[in-house]
Amino acid sequence: MGYSHKNSKGVTYYLHSKDVTLRGGRNQTIYYFARDERSNSCDLPAGKQVVESSRTGLPLVKKA
C-alpha cells in the first residue's frame, strides 16, 4: 500500500509514480495523485512534501 492523503473535503487520494522520457531524451519520474489505488502506487519520496491546492483541494507533491 502506497502513500495516502485525505484532503480538507474528506476525499482520500493515493500517490502514484511513473517514469517518463522527456523530449530531450532525459528520463524523469513524475508523481501524481488518484482517487483509486493502482499497481504503480508508491510511498512519498524523501525530500518531498504534500501540499493541497487551495482552489481545487487536490494534493500536490513539492520539494520540501
Q: Gyration radius, to the nearest Å? A: 13 Å
Mean pLDDT: 95
Largest sheet: 3 strands, antiparallel
Q: Output the helix-strand order.
A: EEEEE
Strand portion: over 45%
Structural class: mainly beta
Amino-to-carboxy terminus distance: 23 Å
* Percentage of residues in helical conformation: under 10%
Helix count, DSSP H or I runs of 4 or more residues = 0
Number of domains: 1
Written description of the protein model:
This protein is mainly beta. It has one domain. Helices cover 0% and strands 48% of the residues. The protein contains no helices and 5 strands. It has strands at residues 4-6, 12-21, 27-34, 48-52, 59-63. The strands form 2 sheets. It has a 3-stranded antiparallel β-sheet, with no helix packed on it. Strands 4-5 form a two-stranded antiparallel sheet. It is globular, with a radius of gyration of 13 Å. The two termini are 23 Å apart. 5% of the residues are buried. The mean pLDDT is 95.
